[in-house]
Structure formats: C-alpha cells, structure tokens
Design brief:
By secondary structure, the chain is mostly beta strands. About 0% of the residues lie in helices and about 25% in strands. It has one domain.
C-alpha cells in the first residue's frame, strides 16, 4: 500500500480515507498527504 513520502511511480492513487484521487506524473514524484483530508494511505 503506497503511503505519503514514498515514490511509488507514475499513476493515479486513491486516498483510502476519503477517495480523493492524487495523480503522480513522474516516477520521481513523492506521494503527498491527501490534499482533501490529510490521509496518508492510498490504493492504486
């Protein structure tokens, strides 16, 4: 399960807490805390 601070690669990540989608455009991008609820765990 990708979490905040990791670099899981390009793609869409969905916050486990609220469902907000976060898109990473580059393999070097770091997964941020959810911009909507501050959650830190995501699913692809």
């Amino acid at each position: 399960m990708p979490t905040t601070g990791e670099k899981p690669g390009k793609g869409e990540y969905i916050c486990n807490k609220c469902g907000q989608v976060v898109v990473l455009d580059d393999n070097t991008d770091t997964l941020p805390p959810c911009p909507k609820c501050g959650g830190t765990e995501y699913r692809k």
